[in-house]
Design brief:
homodimer; alpha/beta; 9 helices; DNA-binding
Amino acid sequence: MQSQVCLPEVTKKRMIQLLQLLKAWPDEKITSSDISQQTGWKPSLIRHDFWLLGTDFNGVSNGYYKDQLSEIISRQLGLQAESFTKNICIVGLGRLGAALLDQNTFPESEFQIKAGFDSNVYRVEILRSTFPLYPASEMQFVIKRENIKYAVLAVTDKDAQSMTDRLVKTGIQGIVNMTNVVLKVPKGIKVENLSIINALKLVI
Amino acid sequence: MQSQVCLPEVTKKRMIQLLQLLKAWPDEKITSSDISQQTGWKPSLIRHDFWLLGTDFNGVSNGYYKDQLSEIISRQLGLQAESFTKNICIVGLGRLGAALLDQNTFPESEFQIKAGFDSNVYRVEILRSTFPLYPASEMQFVIKRENIKYAVLAVTDKDAQSMTDRLVKTGIQGIVNMTNVVLKVPKGIKVENLSIINALKLVI
DNA sequence: TACTGTGAACCTATTCACAGCA
DNA sequence: TGCTGTGAATAGGTTCACAGTA
């Protein structure tokens, strides 16, 4: 039940994407070269990743069972429903943040939005959602009370660092950063950068 | 004027983020350890990146001039306004895609949205934006005519691959993928994955 | 035969160490 | 002294080669 090896970030990233692929995979079994065809990753790399996961898939000579593979990956990444608190919040309810309030953004039970925050009280009052919205001043209190562990940051660039500082103070563990700013956070807090503009510059 | 060395992706990513940091930097000069403090990257790594850029900054012993640094990075990454076609389109006008229609999402002159597409004709008709929206059936035609080179994909997961295939046929060069799906594209087409759910799993 | 499991070999990225400059 | 520029050293990631299995 324990294991959960320390995996390189790159491997984690691939495994998370692979989980999505497996979800849509039509057959019962899948081979490393099937995966390679879909993703472009070399078959040997995929097998090597599985090896790093440490568990023995009984996939020898025959490909892997989709369901079993999903389950093992989820477990080794600590993604199993019961193994982590999946409460999240949205910080910044401008057009982008408000779009994330949609139920369909997080259809999977893996994550559950518990709160939305904005320093503009007007937004907090007029926006509709299936969970409560609060003024940013209540962040500290609400995040503690609701046991929120992760935040999606969707504020304007100029507010990005100050909101991050406040989030950090609440004891949040990870931030998905939709702004264009490079956030300064203490060690131990994980940040994933999802700036659309920076991504566009990268595909050039 | 030419140069524009072949840089590792990781270095590009850092340099693109650094450009954002420089934009907001208050002083005229900046040192590699200033940058390190803001980003967490080791000063030696930053200097090494600059070295890979190949140009001689006259930053010896004194830090770098912010403006000069920005300019050199932009040039070496081929990000200068005149050096590439920055026309983009949004594919998928659900809540997320529609949010991107906002002027403020792409305030910089670097990218210009030329079109939005959705297979749902209703959305195309009722949404308001400063540029035209089209049914997906007109993608091929419009993308050619408007000389659109990059796309932001914001459709549902189930439409992700089919829309990608259509984009690829139009000759698009890069895709920013906001879906959770691992896209299958021919070599030479760049994809950046910006799935919020996958990012959340990664910050766990 | 067609696949996986595995460690070595290779390649890529980061860090170190230090010379050189203001 | 405090910084950059630079190549060498190290660490990290990917690919290869092949033994082992159904």
